UniProtKB/TrEMBL annotation:
<dbReference type="GO" id="GO:0005886">
    <property type="term" value="C:plasma membrane"/>
</dbReference>
<dbReference type="InterPro" id="IPR019734">
    <property type="entry name" value="TPR_rpt"/>
</dbReference>
<keyword id="KW-0812">Transmembrane</keyword>
<dbReference type="InterPro" id="IPR050469">
    <property type="entry name" value="Diguanylate_Cyclase"/>
</dbReference>
<keyword id="KW-1133">Transmembrane helix</keyword>
<dbReference type="GO" id="GO:0043709">
    <property type="term" value="P:cell adhesion involved in single-species biofilm formation"/>
</dbReference>
<feature type="signal peptide">
    <location>
        <begin position="1"/>
        <end position="21"/>
    </location>
</feature>
<protein>
    <recommendedName>
        <fullName>diguanylate cyclase</fullName>
        <ecNumber>2.7.7.65</ecNumber>
    </recommendedName>
</protein>
<keyword id="KW-0732">Signal</keyword>
<dbReference type="GO" id="GO:0052621">
    <property type="term" value="F:diguanylate cyclase activity"/>
</dbReference>
<dbReference type="Pfam" id="PF00990">
    <property type="entry name" value="GGDEF"/>
</dbReference>
<dbReference type="Pfam" id="PF13181">
    <property type="entry name" value="TPR_8"/>
</dbReference>
<dbReference type="GO" id="GO:1902201">
    <property type="term" value="P:negative regulation of bacterial-type flagellum-dependent cell motility"/>
</dbReference>
<dbReference type="InterPro" id="IPR029787">
    <property type="entry name" value="Nucleotide_cyclase"/>
</dbReference>
<dbReference type="InterPro" id="IPR000160">
    <property type="entry name" value="GGDEF_dom"/>
</dbReference>
<feature type="domain" description="GGDEF">
    <location>
        <begin position="444"/>
        <end position="577"/>
    </location>
</feature>
<feature type="transmembrane region" description="Helical">
    <location>
        <begin position="384"/>
        <end position="405"/>
    </location>
</feature>
Length: 594
């Protein structure tokens, strides 16, 4: 029963960290809160009451998770039957592997509490097959730790060692907490298997690692383990020092189960040191504990100590009474141990039968494979001829594929501007036209930004066409990087560019145009080998209900852009009908509808 409570502690740690660690909105966030406060009775009960009112709105995964958390709360309260009901309901919903794993581990814990070890082992077997399907290494490590705890509860320490080693083999990529638990379980298995030197080294390693990383409760358990190794070796003085150190480490946690265990161990170590009064003091503390299954192992040690003390004092009547109690407790614990051993051996036998069946199937498969190989040998000559024919076809196919790739490559080159690498005018208008129709069908706004680099001819004349090309490429790079993924950016002419903006209203388009104007103005030209300023004049237009294609938008954006030129350049102009009414503005538009 002691191991069961340790198992329950490990379970609670597993639950808090195993499912949906990140905070999300809505019900997932509330379920995260419930998970975080599952150990707090008042907060968790309050959250459960609120969530019950909204559970009809949950999706399947949320519903299953809520049922598991309710089952966890009942398990903490010791209401095992009620917990099983919640877990069964969650399992019926066929949730994700993550939640299924949690359900099975809870059920196994409950069956251990009921001493139904065979059912616990059946669930462990099922869970073992599930865990191998998990791709998340961290979750796999947590599940291995949980399985080690369950096997520890039924005293199957070979299996405990096996699963602890599996966690160790996962490497340092897993969490420090799981590494700490694995080191402790490995040392415990060595102690219970009687490999005392390995156990001593293991407890020292787990103590140092867990203390260094802030897991002080596991550090206390490791110190207790070191004391138990020394007690087994008969080194009572060393054992006593370790037990006192462990007691001091446990007290801040008020972990009474472990503290009571330390009292029982101290009674033994003091008896070994012949400090009779101290041994009697700690033994009597343990004797006064309630007659609960979790205290039986402690009381067994204490009654034996008191029997020896009173026997040495010559008080044979009291010695006999305590020896009778010792025998009674030993018998009860032995019966429970036998039940665990029988269940474990039965599970191993059934697993062995399954392995034998698998071996028979493997032999059948080998026979079938041999026959298939013989048949294959007879067909080999035919395949050689077929291979030659096939090889010729492959060569032709590769040739056709190369031609297709080349064709696509040339087609792609035709779609992009060779200098800047962005779309050319024809391609951009085709793509943007489709985007405009799609946007219009949703009754959303569509905007166009056109801009022309100011005094570009003067730059070409003063600094050469190489510098002009550098400017065009730099402007294309800067704007392309700043534009959104759905926008279409193209070079329309020598120094003229256009952006097509789906789902964008006039205000947003103006903000974007101002941003792009600033980006162009801030370009460092000294990297071209010359120092000069770059600016651009922008025109912005937005779709109206009368627009049936992009042409009117381009026309209006072009007019607005040339209006920016008239206003002194390096500015953004939103298209207004008044601009078009200006005859000079209209005539200067290169894209006036004819």
């Amino acid at each position: 029963m002691q191991t069961f409570k340790l198992l329950l502690l490990a379970l609670l740690t597993f639950i808090v960290t195993s499912v949906a660690a990140a905070k999300v909105e809505g019900f997932d966030g509330l379920l995260d809160d419930l998970e975080n406060f599952i150990l707090d009775a008042d907060k968790s009960n309050s959250l459960i009451e609120n969530l019950v009112k909204s559970q009809h709105e949950f999706n399947l995964e949320q519903h299953a998770r809520f049922l598991v958390l309710q089952g966890t709360r009942e398990l903490i309260n010791g209401k095992y039957q009620s917990s099983i009901v919640f877990l069964n309901e969650a399992e019926k919903l066929q949730p994700s592997t993550l939640i299924k794993t949690s359900i099975f581990l809870h059920k196994a814990t409950i069956f251990v509490a009921y001493h139904e070890y065979q059912q616990a082992l059946d669930i462990i077997s099922l869970n073992s097959s599930l865990v191998e399907k998990l791709k998340d290494v961290e979750l796999k490590a947590k599940t291995y730790i949980r399985l080690a705890g369950l096997y520890s509860a039924i005293q199957a320490f070979d299996e405990v060692k096996q699963y602890a080693l599996k966690v160790v083999k996962l490497g340092s990529g897993i969490s420090l907490k799981n590494q700490c638990h694995a080191k402790l379980y490995l040392a415990v298995s060595e102690l219970k298997l009687g490999i005392l030197d390995n156990a001593s080294r293991g407890f020292e390693a787990s103590s140092q690692f867990c203390r260094l990383n802030g897991f002080l409760l596991i550090d206390a358990m490791s110190i207790k383990g070191l004391g138990m190794v020394e007690l087994e070796k008969g080194n009572y003085s060393n054992a006593n020092l370790f037990f006192i150190d462990a007691l001091l480490s446990y007290q801040p946690f008020q972990y009474m189960l472990e503290i009571n265990h330390i009292y029982a161990l101290l009674s033994e170590s003091y008896l070994g040191l012949k400090k009779i009064e101290k041994a009697k003091e700690y033994a009597e503390i343990v004797i006064e504990l309630p007659d609960e299954p979790s205290n039986l192992e402690f009381k067994k040690r204490a009654t034996k100590v008191l029997a020896e003390i009173y026997n040495k004092r010559g008080d044979f009547e009291l010695a006999y009474q305590y020896m009778e109690k010792y025998q009674g407790i030993s018998t009860a614990l032995l019966d429970d141990t036998k039940a665990k051993a029988n269940a474990y051996q039965m599970a191993k036998f059934e697993n062995g039968e399954k392995n034998r069946e698998i071996n028979l199937l493997n032999k059948d498969r080998e026979l079938y494979t041999a026959k298939a190989a013989l048949t294959e040998s007879k067909r080999r000559n035919e395949r050689m001829m077929n291979t030659l024919i096939f090889g010729g076809l492959v060569v032709l196919a590769i040739f056709a594929l190369v031609m297709t790739v080349q064709k696509r490559k040339y087609k792609q080159l035709a779609q992009y501007d060779a200098l800047t690498g962005i779309f050319n005018r024809g391609t951009a208008q085709n793509i943007a036209e489709y985007s405009f129709i799609k946007t219009a069908s949703k009754r959303e706004m569509f905007s166009v930004i056109m801009f022309d680099l100011d005094h570009f001819k003067r730059i070409n004349d003063n600094y050469g066409h190489g510098t002009g090309d550098w400017i065009l490429k730099k402007v294309a790079e800067v704007i392309n990087k700043a534009s959104r993924s759905d926008d279409v950016f193209a070079r329309f002419g020598s120094e003229e560019f256009a952006l097509f903006l789906p789902n964008t209203d006039e205000a947003k388009a103006k903000i974007m145009a101002e941003e792009y104007r600033g980006l162009i103005q801030s370009i460092e030209t000294r990297f071209s080998g010359h120092n000069f300023a770059i600016t651009a004049s922008f025109g912005v237009s937005t779709s109206s209900e009368d627009d049936l294609s992009l042409d009117p938008l381009l026309h209006r954006a072009d007019i607005a852009m040339y209006h920016s030129k008239e206003q002194g350049r390096n500015c953004v102009t939103l298209y207004k009908p008044e601009i078009e009414q200006s005859r000079s503005g209209y005539q200067k538009s290169k894209m006036a509808l004819r």
